[in-house]
Specification:
The protein is mainly α and about 350 residues long. It is about 80% helix and about 0% strand. The protein is built from 16 helices and two strands. The longest helix is centred in the C-terminal third of the chain and has 27 residues, at about 225-255. It is globular and about 55 Å long. Keywords: Cell membrane, Membrane, Transmembrane, Transmembrane helix.
Length: about 350
């Protein structure tokens, strides 16, 4: 017992080791879930992964730094189109990891340009500027139709499953790795790495600076914090996450077209963050899960009630709206934020 107590105590005291331990547990859960579900569910989990990555980046920007962005779908588009351009040939020039990194860097560079320009904007002005970005970027793909495929978009090559990866998964689970399952693994590995980095960043001095700027700009400036630099850095991190999410999305959907990056996608990401709880990576993941699986659940309920396919499909946006209104009324801090508040109040009363 005493042999285990010392390592556990060391893990509990170290932020990095604690986050790595949670990531390891999460990886085990991901393997168990992906290996016990169908190909269709694997595709849904891949969708949840890329929505979770983008929502995690957005919750850093909005929840920790207090900036509102309505244009993160545009950053996902930059990541997705970078992936489509690099990964559509029979012999891609880069491996999957290289493509993901390039897509992230491209979105980072675009985020740097937008972040510097928007560093002096606040609240609705920043929301308006990012809204314009969300509207303009899909149009760029149409304007440069010869290179970006226009309305039809670009097809994305299905990643080949590396032999060592297939062997490793077969050794652990005795199951073969299909293309859909491999993309889901790519998405969840990317999500775990991203969340570990974001969790450590939020606990570091950088995270404390972001929270100080969010809570009181005047006090933060008097304390010597460079407000513009803090805002631009938060925007950079968030845009990079969106670019990575766009790359995973392109591999999962296997096509990159302007219709996939409309304003609806940006609002969907914001909805995930609000539903789960601002400033919480777990909340971002819960929000992504709701947005991924709720439509199918609602459609199934509609079929059970005797509604037609069209009526059942149209039921999902209505339920989205109702869930959003209920969360705002009953749990304004989001699901995770409200649960933490309830636990805190219960601890104080006992």
């Amino acid at each position: 017992m005493s042999m285990l107590a010392a390592p556990l105590h060391r893990v509990s005291r170290s932020t990095l080791l604690r986050h790595l331990a949670v990531a390891l547990i999460g990886l085990v859960v991901v393997i168990l879930v992906l290996e016990s579900t169908s190909t269709f569910r694997n595709a849904q989990f891949a969708a949840m992964a890329y929505l979770g990555i983008a929502a995690g980046g957005l919750t850093v920007l909005t929840g920790l730094n207090g900036q509102i962005s309505l244009g993160h779908g545009a950053f996902m588009a930059f990541g997705a189109y970078s992936t489509a351009l690099l990964y559509r040939e029979a012999e891609p020039v880069l491996p999957v990891v290289g493509v993901l990194l390039v897509a992230t860097v491209v979105a980072l560079l675009v985020g740097a340009l937008v972040g510097v320009a928007a560093a002096r904007l606040h609240g609705p002005y920043l929301a308006g500027a990012t809204l314009a970005l969300a509207v303009a970027v899909p149009g760029m793909a149409i304007f440069f139709g010869d290179s970006l495929g226009g309305e039809q978009g670009l097809n994305v090559r299905v990643p080949d499953v590396p032999g060592w990866f297939a062997d490793a998964v077969f050794f652990l689970t005795a199951h073969d790795v299909t293309a859909s399952k491999y993309v889901a693994y790519i998405g969840w590995l990317a999500l775990i790495v991203t969340f570990v980095l974001l969790a450590n960043l939020s606990r570091s001095r950088v995270g404390r600076v972001w929270r100080a700027v969010r809570d009181d700009e005047v006090a933060a400036e008097l304390a010597g914090i460079n407000l513009g630099r803090a805002r631009v850095l938060a925007f950079l991190v968030s845009a990079g996450c969106a670019g990575l999410a766009g790359a995973v999305m392109a591999m999962a959907v296997r096509i990159t077209a302007p219709s996939g990056f409309t304003l609806t996608l940006s609002l969907t990401l914001l909805t995930a963050v609000v539903l789960g709880g601002l400033g919480s990576l777990l909340g971002a993941l819960i929000g992504a899960a709701l947005l991924t699986f709720l439509p199918q659940v609602v459609t199934g309920v509609g079929h059970d009630l005797g509604l037609s396919d069209v009526q059942s499909a149209e039921l999902a946006p209505l339920v989205y709206g109702l869930v959003m209104v209920l969360v705002i009324l009953l749990a304004p801090a989001g699901i995770v934020g409200s649960l933490r508040g309830w636990r805190r109040s219960r601890r104080e009363t006992t």
